[in-house]
Specification:
This protein is of the alpha/beta class. It has helices at residues 11-25, 41-52, 58-82, 114-119, 147-159, 191-199, 207-216, 267-276, 301-310, 338-348, 372-382; strands at 2-3, 31-35, 87-90, 97-100, 107-111, 125-129, 132-134, 140-142, 163-167, 172-173, 185-186, 188-190, 220-224, 232-235, 248-260, 284-286, 292-297, 316-328, 353-359, 362-368. The strands form five sheets. It has an eight-stranded mixed beta sheet with strand order 3-6-2-1-9-13-14-12, sandwiched between helices. Helix 2 packs antiparallel against helix 3, helix 6 packs antiparallel against helix 7 (207-216) and helix 10 crosses helix 11. The two termini are 30 Å apart.
Length: 385
């Protein structure tokens, strides 16, 4: 079971989570509960660190960031004990989570289950700090965005257990209900559709988690954090095709479009250096006139521009008022005419797009941010979502 920060934002919410875990413990032999930091704890810690230095050491930031989850595991374990549930808290390191890679963006290399397995001899529930582990040098590291989801799924994989992710929404919907109130909740989704959605902006779960679950065929159940309504099950692709060709419309905000005009840059060198700096490049297009355009996340913009300028004088333009809107669906693999229908929507609504990209099960458009809501509603209506 995994609970995010919004589910643990106050003491009352922590007690409510403890009650859910307590009830769940009555029907299973043992439980690992993975938790995030409480509410806005992480933002508060970052703000305080910025009062000391604008360029803190990533190692020290990992030490700091890991403290939020450690508060959560202690509080939740106390609440469970008050309910009479035999429980114990474990940091990521104590739970045997071994990591590799850079600070703030580490990955899990393996999990040593010795402490967890021995602890289950004395405790029914183990509360584990998500988002963190220990590298080969003995340093605390954090797993980056969605790290607690990754911790939960990784533990589920090695324990050969299904995983339940409790969040502040009742499941995964065809469209963001805040934009399209009549959006349908999906009772089930395939790993591939969910991964595509996660990569294309759906914030319900981190894509690395879905990829890991798919590799080990571990089902993921997305549930409302009140545990009183059916959610969405993510599992294998077989028998998972929806009635609709399109399953979901996803939105990715905080996107920047960079245009290099008549550039003589070595494109391979440019993208190699961007990759080395950890800048993830998304949609790319190039013309015979040596015009190159690509999208990145807004948080990577400063780093990308520094690299471009280091490669010599270049004429470039930045457009930071764009979004990425994508339609996703497994049935697109075998259903002709989807692209035609989508382009017809854009033509009928007079929506301009800057770039378009496709995969086997998705089509994505880079559009002006002001057109985002109108585009989503038009696509939802056209595909009966």
């Amino acid at each position: 079971m995994k609970f995010g920060g919004s589910s643990l934002a106050t003491i009352d919410k922590i007690k409510a989570v403890a009650k859910i875990v307590s009830n769940r413990s009555e029907s299973v032999e043992s439980i690992v509960v993975v938790v995030s930091a409480m509410g806005n704890t992480t933002n508060s810690m970052i703000s305080m660190s910025n009062e000391i230095t604008q360029v803190p050491s990533k190692r020290e930031m990992d030490v700091l960031m890991s403290a939020g989850e450690q508060m959560s595991i202690a509080y939740l374990t106390m609440a469970l004990t008050e309910l009479g549930v035999s429980s114990m808290s474990l940091t990521g390191a104590q739970a045997g989570i071994i990591t590799y890679g850079n600070h703030s963006k580490s990955k899990i290399s393996r999990i040593n289950l010795k402490r967890i397995e021995s602890s289950f001899n004395s405790y029914k529930v183990l509360v584990v700090a998500g988002f963190q582990g220990l590298n080969s040098r003995g340093d605390i590291t954090t797993l980056g965005r969605g790290g607690s989801d990754i911790s939960a799924v990784a533990l589920a994989c090695v324990l050969k257990s299904p995983v339940e992710i409790y969040t502040d929404v009742a499941g995964i919907y065809t469209v963001d209900p805040r934009i399209h109130p009549t959006a349908r909740k999906l009772s089930s989704l395939s790993y591939s559709e969910t991964m595509e959605m996660a990569n294309l902006g759906a914030s319900i779960i981190e894509p690395r988690s879905v990829e890991l679950a798919a590799k080990h065929q571990i089902p993921i159940h997305i549930l409302l954090n009140t545990a009183d309504t059916p959610g969405t099950i993510i599992k294998g692709d077989s028998d998972m095709l929806e009635e609709n060709i399109i399953t979901n419309v996803s939105i990715m905000k905080e996107v920047v479009l960079i245009n290099l005009n008549h550039t003589d840059l070595n494109v391979a060198q440019l993208f190699t250096q961007l990759a080395q700096e950890g800048v993830s490049v998304d949609v790319i297009s190039q013309t015979y006139e040596k015009d190159i355009s690509f999208t990145i996340s807004k948080e990577d913009c400063a780093g990308a521009l520094k690299i471009i300028e280091s490669l010599g004088e270049q004429e470039y333009r930045i457009k930071d008022d764009v979004s990425k809107v994508s339609i996703i669906g497994n049935a697109m693999r075998n259903q002709p005419g989807v692209a035609a229908d989508v382009f017809e929507v854009f033509a009928n609504e007079s929506i301009h797009f800057h770039q378009v990209s496709t995969s086997e099960i998705s089509i994505s458009f880079i559009i002006d941010s002001d057109d985002t809501e109108r585009t989503v509603k038009a696509l939802a209506a056209a595909f009966n979502l």
